[in-house]
Amino acid sequence: PETIEKMINQSMYQKQSEDEYSDFIHDVNHQSYYALMKLTKQELDVFLMHKCEQLSLNDVAGLLNISKSAAQSYLKRAVNKINSEMQCNLFL
């Protein structure tokens, strides 16, 4: 909690705007579109915060008010779904 407060107070946490994510996610010409559409909201939030915004899983968990193990689980499921969908789309 102390780290999160420090990040927010010092504006170290620069969340991307919802519009930027929306533009990327809804770009149907991008092969990641179909993979990201398979994710639940929780999986998508954790994936974007950890992989795109480079936040640690501890920080992601704190910001989303979930446990670190839940964040790890959401991230693992997201990565598995994305990998699976990308493999399927290779042959389309």
Q: What are the key terms here?
A:
92 residues; mainly alpha; Arc Repressor Mutant, subunit A; disordered N terminus
- Number of E strands: 0
Counting helices, strands and paired strands, the structural category is mainly alpha
- Broad shape: elongated
According to CATH, the fold-level topology of the domain at 1-7 and 40-92 is: Arc Repressor Mutant, subunit A
Poorly predicted regions: 1-13
Helicity range of the residues? 55-70%
- Radius of gyration (CA) equals 14 Å
Under CATH at level 1, the class of the domain at 1-7 and 40-92 stands as Mainly Alpha
Separation, N- and C-terminal Cα atoms: 45 Å
The oligomeric state is: single chain
Q: What proportion of the residues form beta strands (DSSP E)?
A: under 5%
- Provide a count of the helices: 6
**Rounded average pLDDT:** 76
Q: Report on the biggest sheet.
A: none
Q: Which CATH architecture of the domain at 1-7 and 40-92?
A: Orthogonal Bundle
GO molecular function, one term: DNA binding
Pfam families: Sigma70_r4_2
Domain RNA polymerase sigma factor 70 region 4 type: 35-81
Protein name: RNA polymerase subunit sigma-70
Describe the protein's architecture and organization.
- This protein is an all-alpha fold.
- Helix 4 packs across helix 6 and helix 5 crosses helix 6.
- It starts with a helix and ends with a helix.
- The chain has a domain of 60 residues: Arc Repressor Mutant, subunit A (Orthogonal Bundle), CATH 1.10.10.
- The chain is built from six helices and no strands.
- Helix content is 70%, strand content 0%.
- It is elongated, with a radius of gyration of 14 Å.
- The relative contact order is 0.15.
- GO terms for molecular function: DNA binding; sigma factor activity.
- This is RNA polymerase subunit sigma-70.
- It holds the Pfam family Sigma70_r4_2.
- It comes from Staphylococcus epidermidis.
